[in-house]
Amino acid sequence: MLAVMDLQVHYGGIAAVKGVSFAVEKGETVALIGANGAGKTSTLKALARLLAGYVTTGSIRLAGEEISTLAPHQLIGKGLALVPEGRGVFARLSVAENLTMGAYSRHDKSEIAADLAHIYDLLPRLKERQRQLAGTLSGGEQQMLALGRALMGRPSLLLLDEPSMGLAPLMVQKVFETIRAVAATGVTILLVEQNAKLALETAGRGYVMESGRITLADSAAGLLADPRVRQAYLGE
Amino acid sequence: MDVFLQQVVNGLTLGSLYAVVALGYTMVYGIIQLINFAHGEVVMFGAMISLSVISAAAGSNLPPLAIILAGVLVAIPACMALGYFLERIAYRPLRRAPRLAPLITAIGMSIVLQQVAMMLWSRNILAFPQILPMVVYELAGASISALQIAIIGICFAMMAGLALLIYRTRLGAAMRATAENPEIARLMGVDVDRVIAATFVIGAGLAAVAGLMVGLYYGLAHYMMGATLGMKAFSAAVLGGIGNIPGAMVGGLLLGLVEALGAGYIGDLTDLCQYGTLSAMLETRCADGGNVVLFGSNYQDVFAFVVLILVLVFRPSGLLGERVADRA
Lengths: 236, 328
Fold this sequence. Notes:
heterodimer; A: 236 residues; alpha/beta; B: 328 residues; mainly alpha; ABC transporter involved in vitamin B12 uptake, BtuC; two-stranded antiparallel sheet; 4 strands
């Protein structure tokens, strides 16, 4: 589904991502874990082509097609959606408008309406609040909205950037339950998380990133059992 | 004649024109935080182009309304093209530049457009062909012309149409999303460059109609007419809260009313003869209903800028603005 080869990102003179290669197969959930500043978010942003002002090199193939030369707004049409760090809901648009924006690239009106109903079933809180401005939602509700909005684009590959960030523990559980439910429907997920335990419990495989490089790659169970991971990321 | 009601009528006419022009400033600011100082010149081009078309057709036997319609139908696409051209060649290359650069470019484009208009239409004040018959209605002691009714009606219709576009359509949602966060809008599949271009084009279309109506209302057009008008409409946008669509409408109408009422009363208020002590000192000149007026209605233009200064001092975010702008 996704194959990344030798991806590099430079902010001015600083190399944030120093040549990473990884792959995500169709239908699986893959976690990308690592400490703050390891280059996880830069990697995701590079995949979503949001670093146009900076130097990025390497190859990014989505379902066999090179996407590293496309404009960011063309990616959703190729099936790639990113739920950004900090959620990025449109605070001054209503909940319903946010969800409709998620389907901006689509033109199949009746299908969009059906998907909207489906999202409301999956996330009933959003239905209750559909007329409210998104900025008035709680952090957890905004995360749900960001997730629902991305799903409205019917992505085949969903990139999630720190979905647990800034949320209360109970809300984190709920968000991850939703992520598992989405994964169960066959959507391929690349999950970036600082909460390594939660991420590896959700994913089938994982990569560990350190200072801009991938240093470990294994099944989620393997990583959870690895003493290096246990010591550095699970607080043991 | 009822001065108050009369000035309210005049103020509403003026104010609805300001509001339509102010929308062009506020839409562009809302989406790319740029004050497009050349917007007043787009209004001027709208007036000049429609004047040329109307003058050319004035000799024919066409009904006056058809001639005016022809003028506006040429002016709208021409101004839209001008708005697109401004964005494409002057502002888009500077999208990532420090904010001062596009601002100075906007002032530069404004001067360029004035000079181009001067070369095309001369430096003279041009008379707008008066092909419409003057029809005036009496209304509770004030008079209102058919043209004023038409201007107010058309301006309100355009504002309603724009509100529908922005709050009810796919393009409008994309505009609001881009205004809030262009990067996230891109993730949704919005072609941000096209949305920004569309914003300029829509604002320029409104400006074209406003230009024609200003020309008809005052009966003249001049290559510098966009400067004052533009600054006033900009003041109206700031008064309402720059970047805020309803704010520009409210700000424009309020500014028009302030200006008209100010001009209507400033003569009486600054007539020294009505103040006891002073009138004694000026006895000879005040006798037999004479007066010594300090400021007349030619000070009309001052009011817009007094309002601008007051807003910037006391409420920089404007009447309906939500955040205080810390950007140039």
